[in-house]
């Protein structure tokens, strides 16, 4: 697997190798497999499933009561802990 922005293969020692995913998101969820071979062409492989859990969407700052004068702008705002897929008012 070539190095990408999402996954970086790394040799830790002669017998330890890692695939580092520094900023895991839902895009890297899936099945992963590593195949190793020796000078005689013998291969061994191992696989695993990677599931990235996304935190539940929550308001970090909710709507607040406001009073405005007629004819002036009213701005209602909220903050959430991660980008929402959709916002409806």
UniProtKB/TrEMBL annotation:
Protein name (database record): Ig-like_bact domain-containing protein
């Amino acid at each position: 697997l070539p190095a990408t922005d999402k996954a970086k293969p790394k040799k830790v020692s002669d017998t330890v190798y890692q695939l580092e995913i520094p900023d895991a998101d839902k895009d890297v969820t899936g099945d992963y497999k590593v195949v190793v071979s020796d000078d005689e062409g013998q291969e061994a492989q191992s696989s695993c499933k990677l599931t990235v859990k996304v935190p539940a969407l929550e308001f970090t700052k909710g709507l607040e009561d406001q009073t405005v004068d007629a004819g002036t702008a009213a701005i209602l705002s909220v903050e959430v802990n991660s980008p929402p897929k959709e916002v409806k008012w």
